[in-house]
Amino acid sequence: MSSVKIENLSKSYGDNKVLDQISLTIDNGKFVTLLGPSGCGKSTLLRCIAGLTDVDEGDVFFDDEAVTNLRPERRNIGMVFQSYALFPNLNVEENISFGLNVRKLDKKIIEKELKNYISLVELTGKEKAYPHELSGGQKQRVALARALILKPRILLLDEPLSALDAKIRKNLRLQIRKIQKELDITTIFVTHDQEEALIISDEIYVIHEGKIAQKGNAEIIYTKPVNSFVAGFIGNYNIIEDTFINWINNKHQFEGQFALRPEVIKIDNKHEEKPEHLTVKGSLRDIILLGSIIRYVVKVNEKEIMVDVLNENEKSMYSIGEEVYLRFAYKKLQRIA
Amino acid sequence: MQKNKTNKAIAMGLMIYLVIPIFFTLIYSFAAKWQNTLLPEGFTLKHYIQLFTTARYFLALGRTMFSAAISIIISFILLVPVIYVGKLHFQWLDKIMGKIILLPFALQGVILAVGLIKIYSGGPIAISGTVFILIGAYFVVILPYMYQGIKNSIDSLDVKTIAEAASLLGASEFFTFFKVVLPNLLKGVTVSTLLSFAILIGEFVLSNILVGGNYETVQVYMYGTRGVSGHYTSAIVISYFLFVLIISGTVLAINKLEARKG
């Protein structure tokens, strides 16, 4: 296990600056997620840490050792790819023990380690199966064991769940987290799925256009987005501008942009005065059923506001076109840059 | 259902169309005399006995197999590392190679042969009339098929990610190539290898012009016997056909067995 420190890392492909002066520090044993839309540079950053991509500028440190110019095979890193990257001509056992065989370890040690790690990823009984005989989830667990068996200093996960079905994805992310805690291994996880990031991470770095847009734990990232990009990317924040404000009970003056989570807004068919609350009138445009949540789309002064309500009744209480009142505590407004 | 039946009928028709010439060649090779009658006037094994007691035939067969096999092996050994390294480190190479490998289609046998004789009959590499020039020419002929086969095989393997995964596990590029890439390729290139083999075995123009009697291949030998007896030539064709069938069948069977394993 190692800590990771990145200092002023930059990388360009031609004129396209993929990473722009990125600096970050990851403590020993932490599970850190790089979150962002595709093309934001998160995978490139991971590949720079692995040594698979050369950096233009800046340095990568493991503990306090600079590894910027070390070849990937010398960095002692475990990595899991979205496309599994298993060796198709080798069976589960041979895939997992590949790295140990490269190191020409004693047969007995290899066998013992194999047994441990195969049971760690719950693949006992599948030792002799070939990759094409395994499901996506099983393949990814082989890839995980293959990386972990070498006891790497750092585990890198490059969208490992993106190719899997929803159900397997949910199980496997819990399993990954459990194993990570068990082995106490520093882990960097790359994903574009905000839900995944919020559930699994100790710390999240939201990456946007090659820069860190925000860092923090799940709660901070979710409840206190610092700018409109993070607010738009995490959850389904409503972005409210000062020009929009046209409150019925206008006691507060605002300037700038604010983010407002859909679930903190109350929807009602009548105006009710409440202290510390703001109310605005609009017309209901759409009702979207999201399983446990009903999402109302309400048009207020030419802007659409989303309101999430827990789905307690079988039928919506409002109908499309109806006039509704939206109410929320004004301290829920999150100022953003 | 209707569509299925139509497909079957088309397949059957094609089968019959392809099998008829071989079938009648087969009958002809067993016929004692078959000139003015609808059916042969008796059957005999004498053409086969004559064929199987002719050492010259087996030598020619051996030369054909040898030159074809060596060309394919050389082609494989040269192309695999080039395409692999190209795929990993020099992606731009693929575009150029894609154009180069089309050249053998433009330069047909006769053109190629005349040019090759001119160049290689003198100078520092005087190999005209030897097996070397034949193997060299064969290499060029099968280049497109071998290149495409190997390239498709490498593409379907996602070698870039596999090579990255292996390097992170501590393996050198060399180790990865022999332990992972090569075993997977061997399976993938069977079809293009068989295709190349079939092309070379049926090839006549190059072997006749380039080496002719100096290195008599089956094709050249058969051409020489055409005046002797039609029955005898038919026997050569049939035995030759069976021989190739057995080789291809064996390769395909081994491949299928391997595919089931992994």
Number of helices of chain A: 9
Q: How many DSSP helices of chain B? A: 13
Strand elements of chain A, count: 18
Please tell me the total number of domains of chain B: 2
- How many angstroms does the end-to-end distance of chain B come to? 35 Å
Which H/E pattern describes the elements of chain A?
EEEHEEEHHHHEHEHEEHHEEEEEEEE
Oligomer: heterodimer
From the 3D coordinates, which CATH architecture of the largest domain in chain A would you assign?
A: 3-Layer(aba) Sandwich
**Mind telling me the CATH superfamily name of the largest domain in chain A?**
P-loop containing nucleotide triphosphate hydrolases
What is the fold named in CATH at topology level of the largest domain in chain A? Rossmann fold
Q: Quickly give the structural class of chain A.
A: alpha+beta
CATH class annotation of the largest domain in chain B = Mainly Alpha
Strand content of chain B: under 5%
Percent in helix of chain A: 10-25%
Name the average pLDDT of chain B. 84
pLDDT < 50 runs, ≥5 residues of chain A: none
Q: Number of domains in the coordinates of chain A?
A: 2
State the strand order across the main sheet of chain A.
Answer: 6-7-8-3-9-10
CATH level 1 name of the largest domain in chain A: Alpha Beta
- Bulk shape of chain B: globular
Write down the overall mean pLDDT of chain A: 88
Walkthrough of the structure:
The complex is a heterodimer of chains A (337) and B (262). The mean pLDDT of chain A is 88. In chain A, the strands form four sheets. In chain A, strands 6-7-8-3-9-10 form a six-stranded mixed β-sheet, with helices on both faces. By secondary structure, chain A is α+β, with helices and mostly antiparallel strands. In chain A, 39% of the residues are buried. Chain A starts with a strand and ends with a strand. Chain A is built from nine helices and 18 strands. Chain A folds into two domains: 4-233, P-loop containing nucleotide triphosphate hydrolases (Rossmann fold, 3-Layer(aba) Sandwich); 238-336, OB fold (Dihydrolipoamide Acetyltransferase, E2P), CATH 2.40.50. Helix content of chain A is 25%, strand content 33%. Chain B folds into two domains: 1-44, no CATH class; 56-261, Orthogonal Bundle (MetI-like fold). Chain B contains 13 helices and no strands. Chain B has helices at 2-30, 46-52, 55-89, 93-100, 103-106, 109-120, 131-157, 159-168, 173-188, 190-202, 205-210, 218-225, 230-261. In chain B, helix 7 packs across helix 9 (173-188). The longest helix of chain B is centred in the first third of the chain and has 35 residues, at 55-89. Chain A binds chain B through residues 50, 52, 71-73, 75, 77-79, 81, 83, 85, 87-91, 98-99, 102-103, 130, 132, 143, 146-147, 150, and chain B through 157-158, 161-162, 164-172, 175, 179-180, 183-184, 187, 261-262.
